[in-house]
Amino acid sequence: MELSWSTFILEIINFLVLLWLLKHFLYRPVLDVIEQRRMSVSQTLTDAATMRDEALALRRQFEERLADWESEKRALRVELDRELGEERQRLLESAHREVENEREKARVAEQRRLDEQQRQLEQLGLEQGMRFASRLLERVADEHLHQRLLSLVVEELTVLEPEQIEQLQAMRDSHTEQVTISTAYPLDEPMQARLQQQLARIFGDTLVIEVRHEPALLGGVRIAAAPWVLHLNLADELKGFVETVHAPL
Fold first, then answer.
1. Are 202 and 234 in contact (CB under 8 A)?
2. How does 43-59 read in b/e, with b if 16+ C-beta sit within 10 Å?
3. Which of 16, 88, 178, 244 has a CA 20 to 30 Å removed from the CA of 70?
């Protein structure tokens, strides 16, 4: 077989034409497609890396938020426990105060009841004592005791201090000059003279004296020179005792 240079040259030319055609119509579009695919893959990888970084950032943020939530939850739990403890302590103190108040009310009520019972017992004792004293004085009251009481009155008038006499005279000057002597038994002349002597010494000789017989006095005497009254008799003593019994304790 004989090599033809013309054929060889034509083959070369055809090959070059083919290469040019392939380059312009096949290879370059393929390269463009490959480049686009490479760029798409690169962009995808970049987006994936970005998404991974964002996911990692979100994960870190979420973990940090979870840690913050745990810290806040512990802090809130501690605060809640503290508030519950304070509220429990407040409720216990309030209940303790209420119990103490109720106990104090019960104690005061019981003390009032005991005081009232004691007062009633004392009242009953005083009333019984009054009745006993009344019966006893009514039985022992006689003329001898009456004379003894009159003597005590005379002694009281005899030992009056000058200041007391001045006060009595001042009282008499602003009121009536009459003096009433009431006795449980008839007044004999010697005792009447002694009483008039002492009264005249106190109130003066111009004094008008009225003598009354009052058996209700039981024994003793009552001397009235308004507004001054001297009573030393069983009836007035019993009356004072009754008033003491019925007076508020």
1. no
2. eeeeeeeeeeeeeeeee
3. 88
Per-residue pLDDT tens digits for 131-170: 666 666 666 666 777 778 778 888 887 877 778 777 777 7
Spatial distance between the Cα atoms of 34 and 40, rounded to a whole number of angstroms: 9
Please count the other Cβ atoms lying within 10 Å of the Cβ belonging to residue 110.
Answer: 10
What confidence tens digit (pLDDT) does each residue in 28-73 have? 777 777 788 888 878 888 888 888 888 888 888 888 888 888 888 8
Q: What is the dihedral of CA 236, 241, 243, 244, to 10 degrees?
A: 150
Q: Are 203 and 169 in contact (CB under 8 A)?
A: yes
Distances (CA, A) of 194 to 80, 92, 118: 97, 81, 48
* The pLDDT of residue 198 is above 70: yes
Angle at 15 between CA 9 and CA 17, to 5 degrees: 105
Q: Is the pTM of this model over 0.90?
A: no
Locate 52 and state its tokens.
Answer: 């991974």
**Per-residue pLDDT reduced to its tens digit, 218-242:** 777 788 776 677 777 777 777 776 6
Residue 106: both structure tokens together: 């019960």
Neighbours of 150 (CB within 10 A): 25
pLDDT of residue 66: 83
Amino acid (one-letter) located at 213:
H
- Do residues 195 and 181 lie in contact, with contact meaning Cβ atoms separated by under 8 Å? yes
> From residue 147, how far is each of 136, 168, 234 by CA, in Å?
18, 25, 13
pLDDT score recorded for residue 118: 85
